[in-house]
Design goal:
The chain is built from eight helices and 24 strands. The longest helix is centred in the middle third of the chain and has 18 residues. The protein is of the alpha+beta class. The structure holds adenosine-5'-triphosphate. The site of adenosine-5'-triphosphate has 8 residues, from helix 1. GO terms for molecular function: ATP binding.
Amino acid sequence: MEITLSLFGTATTVSDSTGLSVEGLVTSFNAATPWQLSLPASGVFGLTGPSGSGKSTLLAALAGQRRCRGKISFANTVWQCGRRALSTHKRALSLGFQDSCLFAGQSVADNLALARRYSRRPVPGEECDQLLKAFGIAPLLHQPVELLSGGEAQRVALLRQLFHNAPLQLFDEPLSAVQRTQVLRCLLPTLRDFWARYPALVIWTSHDFDEIQLLAQRCLWMDAADLSAPLTLPEVARHLDTQGVGDSCRSRIEARVESLQESLLTLDLGGIALYADRVAGHYRKGDTAAFLLEAGDISLSAERPGLSSMLNCLPVMLAAKLHLADGRIRLQLTAAGQVLYADISRLSCERLQLRDGATYFAQFKAGSLAGL
Ligand SMILES: Nc1ncnc2c1ncn2[C@@H]1O[C@H](COP(=O)(O)OP(=O)(O)OP(=O)(O)O)[C@@H](O)[C@H]1O
């Protein structure tokens, strides 16, 4: 079904969609690959792809901050038709950048109050108080924004966007300066919970695929100005693997070199022997060597396993569980003061009856340790 709307006094026909509809959107950057996109009125969608591929340009065009032509409509309102465009402040959206863009000369509290005052869907005060606490912003409320660190400023800017609670929320690497553990363990779970209770259409741009996995169930992929339709997370992971970009979840492990025989390296991690196969480079006994280990390469047992073709068996302590958007569970484990991540299914998690603080056995193949 199609409906007719009036934009600047001229009748315009758009698809009857309450979500976001983009048809043939062209900027000076993507003249050869017009963008098409159709997203529902609510839901969290990741946006990732190689650097310089056009992600920020797309967000700027959606927000009316980049000259473009084509059609954009959201919630049955036409924002762009041909070269005619509705100005940014008339679009029901908010846009958050890596550079926090807070209002200078004002306190944190003033910045946040403005967002609520100009919101058409203000978030209840109680909710705001909880968000202030979860984001660690409460002690900073009376600070002038010029005195905030980069990570603090980003957290305030993100909070300002939540307080404003626009129907379409665009984010461009909004947490790149915030400590990763705080992002993964506190901020992303808070955001997921917030958007479950205050639905909006969210497009979250990041190079950190773990962030996207924790927030979104679908993700857009941009490569050389070519925009995909929403993909599943495994589909995007395959793109990332092929391109060698992005950041799937890998742990960095450091261990002391014991011996190298043929291509099998024997290591010592806190008194436990580890083995790395097919490693390149020169290793000398006593050196500290670093390796990467994919979260998906680890299997976990509640009891010490018997003989196995998996050469590595490391006792680990479960520090935390993170629920990934695709239903899997990411476990944060510690061993000899180092942090490892393991991705397992919800069923495995239930069967193992995992408890924080308990000891388990992480198994992985010698070939899974990639030397740095
Ligand atoms: N204001 C501008 N003027 C001219 N070219 C620009 C401008 N902004 C970006 N570009 C160019 O447009 C292309 C796309 O940039 P864009 O910032 O959209 O990419 P991106 O995918 O967001 O990259 P990143 O992941 O590195 O942030 C790049 O080649 C960039 O150099």
